[in-house]
UniProtKB/TrEMBL annotation:
It holds the Pfam family SBP_bac_3. It comes from Pseudomonas brassicacearum. It comes from the Bacteria. Gene3D superfamilies: Periplasmic binding protein-like II (3.40.190.10). Residues 1-22 form the signal peptide. InterPro entries: Solute-binding_3/MltF_N. SUPFAM superfamilies: Periplasmic binding protein-like II. This is Amino acid ABC transporter substrate-binding protein. CDD domains: PBP2_Atu4678_like (cd13696). Belongs to the bacterial solute-binding protein 3 family.
């Protein structure tokens, strides 16, 4: 370089550009683009599904729109089946995951996960005529569940420990629900969202929720690329604000209902 002054000036410009690029993150990109692309699963009602007009709807869809509104951008729902949630994020087809994603340590090796924005509580689903009003009433009753699920394994183990009653396994969740409705078994254990969707469908008019089951709560998080600390910090605060302002409870009542109380989003005796 023959002109030292020019070299110094060029170096300063390049350094400034590099620093600016390094400081910019996905949050800035989203705001600058005017669009928030959310990976949402639309075959998991009432969290995500398509309504009668084939439009995306559900708790997760509303949550995406809430986030976009706060950011001052337009929301775009990117339909992603459960196995495609992380690939959609990593490949750049989506900016964030809003798709009931369990906060597992294995998953956290690939993507960044926020504090929980929803928690699936297991509940007892039974008929109106069984006399079952809470979990302890299942003892001695014929119960069942969908083969291979966490709740099926837990319920079958309880029946064996009780030494009374019976357990039957079914091939699908629909088979299990039908068995309860038709009296082949008296009750089952499902997530609170499945229970809500089942009752709202009107398909089984003789079913009811009979309290919570004492099983592990499934905490789910929003997701972003693991390296996007600015965006992840913002998402954590957004989840916090959703709870503080009452919006979380509002969406819970809208999509899950009032027969079931929302699970606490914090782990007892643990700062989360």
């Amino acid at each position: 370089m023959k002109n030292p002054a020019f070299a110094v000036a060029l170096s300063a410009v390049l350094s400034t550009t590099f620093v600016a690029s390094a400081q910019a993150d996905k949050l800035d990109d989203i705001i600058g683009s005017g669009k928030l692309r959310c990976a949402v699963t639309l075959d998991f009602p009432p969290m995500g599904f398509r309504d009668a007009s084939n439009n995306p709807a559900g708790f997760d869809v509303d949550y995406c729109h809430d986030l976009a509104k706060i950011l001052g951008v337009e929301a775009e729902v990117v339909e992603t089946p459960f196995p495609d949630r992380i690939p959609a994020l990593v490949s750049g087809r989506a900016d964030v995951i809003v798709a009931s994603t369990s906060d597992t340590l294995e998953r956290a090796k690939t993507v960044g996960l926020t504090v929980p924005y929803f928690a699936f509580q297991m509940v007892v689903l039974t008929r109106d005529d069984t006399g079952i009003n809470d979990f302890k009433d299942l003892k001695g009753k014929p119960v069942g569940n969908t083969s291979g699920t966490y709740e099926a394994i837990a319920l079958e183990k309880d029946v064996k420990n009780w030494g009374t009653g019976s357990f039957r396994a079914y091939q699908s969740q629909n088979d299990t629900l039908l068995a309860v409705a038709q009296g082949h078994i008296d009750a089952t254990v499902v997530t609170n969202t499945v229970a809500a969707a089942t009752l709202k469908s009107g398909k089984y008019k003789n079913l009811k929720v009979a309290g919570n089951a004492p099983y592990v709560i499934d905490y789910v998080s929003l997701g972003a690329k693991r390296s996007e600390y600015g965006l992840l910090n913002y998402l954590d605060l957004f989840v916090n604000q959703q709870v503080r302002t009452g919006r979380y409870n509002e969406l819970f009542v809208k999509w899950v209902g009032t027969d079931i109380s929302p699970a606490d989003l914090t782990v007892p005796k643990v700062y989360y």
